[in-house]
Design a protein that fits this description.
- This protein is of the alpha/beta class.
- The chain has a single domain, classed as 3-Layer(aba) Sandwich (Rossmann fold), CATH 3.40.50.150.
- It is built from seven helices and seven strands.
- Helix 3 packs across helix 4.
């Protein structure tokens, strides 16, 4: 059995199992902070990466990174780690992210306070904001706080949100947003969509 476990670990499965265990424990502790009981699948990560854009001098901001599977996919796709900012509110997950993303900027804090968390020199220099926080579970006013915080550091850039709802997880018209479902993956558990939200002009 130990040989089989070692073989799995050498192929990366050990870290996957550890990630899933950490993710599930945090879901049990606070389901409202977690969108799912398991981390995002490789298929969903690929779709998120495909919708992530940044120009020279810009960075990528991920909110609610969990165990870091999306972050690691971004780095594997070529994003330099020093251009990745990750905000995670749960302390043990933030500690885990610092271990698995040693050169990225991991910030422990509440994403509703983004203007205070993100260094001012990067305000307006964020190419894509990726939201892994289950905003659909929050009341309208709390959703608004997240949206306003994103707009403060990434004005007019909008954000992408991955969700397990078939329809838009946000009441985008009430928020003054335009919504586009950019991708859908039935291979994720549960099946997930990638939504892009931008300010209505």
């Amino acid at each position: 059995m130990k040989q089989a476990a070692d073989a799995l670990a050498s192929r990366g499965f050990g870290q996957d199992i550890a990630n899933a265990g950490l993710f599930f424990r945090r879901w049990l502790a606070n389901p409202l902070q977690m969108g799912s009981v398991v981390p995002s699948s490789p298929a969903l990560c690929r779709r998120i990466v495909a919708q992530t854009h940044y120009a020279p001098g810009e960075v990528v901001l991920e909110l609610g990174a969990g165990t870091g599977v999306v972050s690691q996919s971004l780095l594997t796709a070529g994003l330099p780690p020093e251009r990745l900012f990750v905000v995670e509110i749960v302390r043990d997950m933030a500690d885990h992210l610092r271990d698995v993303l040693p050169r990225a900027h991991v910030i422990e804090g509440d994403a509703r306070r983004l203007p205070a968390l993100i260094p001012t020199e990067f305000h307006g220099r964020i190419g894509t904001v990726i939201v892994g926080i289950p905003l659909v579970l929050l009341p309208f006013g709390e959703q608004r706080r997240f949206i306003d915080a994103i707009e403060a550091v990434a004005p007019s850039r909008g954000f992408i949100l991955y969700s397990y709802w078939i329809t838009s997880p946000l009441p985008y018209e009430r928020h003054g947003l335009v919504a586009t479902r950019e991708a859908w993956t039935p291979l994720n558990f549960p099946p997930a969509s990638v939504w892009r939200y931008t300010r209505r002009t």
